[in-house]
Design a protein that fits this description.
The protein is α+β, with helices and mostly antiparallel strands. Helices cover 24% and strands 30% of the residues. The chain has 2 domains: 9-227, no CATH class; 260-339, SH3 Domains (SH3 type barrels, Roll), CATH 2.30.30.40.
C-alpha cells in the first residue's frame, strides 16, 4: 500500500514511479489484459499519479497526494509539480479504502487546467472516462476517444455503498517551493521553466520506456502491414501487356467518315460492346475483384468491390476494357473484374 499522506516532492516522485510500475508491468495479479497500454502514456500530453484514502460512515472524506507532469514541445517530460486531492461525500456507504490513481491527460486543455493552480474538479472541468487496458495497439478505443482525461484506479481495503462525493485537485505550493528552492507556480514547472530533477530519475526512466515500447510496437505493426500489402500485390493477376493507344490529338476525322458508334469512346479501336451485343438495353456490369489505381491518363481507377458499367469490351479477359464508374470513363484490365 502506497502512503496517501502528503510528503516532500522527492518521496512523491518515488511513489509515482512505484505506482506506474504496478499499472504497467505484468505480475501474478496483473496480466497483459489489465495493464495500461504503452501507447496511452506515450501519446499523453500529461499525467497525474496519486495515492488517495477514503473513509467515513454516511458522510465520507477523501484526501491524498501525488504529482503531475506535462509533455514538453520537444517530447520530453517536464519536472513534477506536487498536487493534493480532497473531497467530501455522502450516501449509503461506510468503511475505509486506499486507492492508487493514474490520470492520463490526453489534450493540452487538460494540462492547462492542471497548470493554472487552485481547485480543479474531476469531471467538472473536462470530460473524464475510464482508460482502456490491454497491450493491443491497433483498433484500441483510446485512439478514437474524445475524452480529455483517462483514469485508472486500484483500490485496497474495504468500502461498500454508493458514493456521491466530489473531489478537487489542489496545487501544493509550499511543497514545490521547498523542493525547487524558489517560489514557483505549477504553470511554470509544467511548461519547462525548471529542468528535470535528478531525484526523479527512476520516474523518467519508466516514462521514457513507454515511448520506446510504443515506437517498437508501431514499427512491428507497420512491418506486418507492409508485408500484407506486399503479399496482396503479389497475388494480383498480371495486367495485359499491350495497352490500347489513344489516337493522336491532331488527327481529325471528316464528318463523312466519323464513326458515330465510337463517338464517345476513349479508345476507338476497342470492339464495341453495343456492336457485339446487338440492340440489348441491359448494360454489362462487372465487379472489381482487386483494386486498380491506374497508371496512365485515361485509366479507370477502382477499389475491390466496385461495380463498373462496361461501355466497350473484347471477348478476352486478358485485354483492356472500357467502362464507367462514378461519372468517370476509362480503361481497365479485364482480368481484375468478374462478370455479374
Amino acid at each position: 500500500m502506497n502512503n496517501p499522506i502528503p510528503s516532500n516532492l522527492k518521496s512523491e516522485a518515488k511513489k509515482a514511479a512505484k505506482i506506474l510500475r504496478e499499472f504497467t508491468e505484468i505480475t501474478s495479479r496483473n496480466g497483459p489484459d489489465k495493464l495500461i497500454p504503452a501507447h496511452v502514456i506515450a501519446r499523453a500530453k500529461g499525467l497525474a499519479v496519486l495515492s488517495v484514502i477514503k473513509a467515513g460512515f454516511l458522510v465520507t472524506a477523501r484526501g491524498g497526494s501525488g504529482i503531475v507532469l506535462a509533455r514538453l514541445p520537444d517530447g520530453k517530460w517536464s519536472a513534477p509539480s506536487a498536487i493534493g486531492i480532497a473531497g467530501l461525500g455522502g450516501g449509503f456507504e461506510m468503511g475505509i479504502e486506499v486507492s492508487d490513481l493514474v490520470i492520463i491527460l490526453n489534450y493540452d486543455r487538460a494540462v492547462e487546467a492542471f497548470a493554472k493552480g487552485g481547485n480543479l474538479t474531476l469531471g467538472g472541468n473536462f470530460t473524464v472516462a475510464v482508460g482502456p487496458v490491454g497491450r493491443n495497439l491497433e483498433g484500441n478505443v483510446s485512439l478514437r476517444s474524445t475524452a480529455a482525461v483517462f483514469t485508472y484506479c486500484k483500490s485496497r481495503g474495504l468500502f461498500a455503498g454508493i458514493s456521491l462525493e466530489g473531489s478537487c485537485l489542489i496545487e501544493r505550493k509550499d511543497t514545490n517551493r521547498k523542493f525547487y528552492c524558489q517560489d514557483i507556480r505549477a504553470y511554470d514547472i509544467l511548461f519547462g521553466a525548471v529542468p528535470r530533477p535528478a531525484q526523479a530519475e527512476d520516474l523518467y526512466e519508466i516514462l521514457d520506456s513507454f515511448t520506446e515500447k510504443y515506437e517498437n510496437e508501431a514499427q512491428r505493426i507497420n512491418a506486418r502491414r507492409a508485408s500484407r500489402e506486399l503479399r496482396k500485390a503479389k497475388e494480383l493477376p498480371p495486367k495485359p501487356s499491350s495497352r490500347p493507344q489513344q489516337p493522336p490529338a491532331q488527327t481529325q476525322l471528316s464528318p463523312d467518315f466519323k464513326d458515330n458508334r465510337n463517338e464517345h469512346k476513349l479508345y476507338p479501336e476497342l470492339s464495341s460492346y453495343h456492336e457485339r451485343c446487338g440492340n440489348s438495353n441491359q448494360p454489362t456490369i462487372v465487379t472489381a475483384l482487386y483494386s486498380f489505381e491506374g497508371q496512365q491518363p485515361g485509366d479507370l481507377p477502382f477499389q475491390a468491390g466496385d461495380r463498373i458499367t462496361v461501355t466497350s469490351k473484347t471477348d478476352s479477359h486478358f485485354d483492356w476494357w472500357e467502362g464507367k464508374l462514378r461519372g468517370q470513363t476509362g480503361i481497365f484490365p479485364a482480368n481484375y473484374v468478374t462478370m455479374n
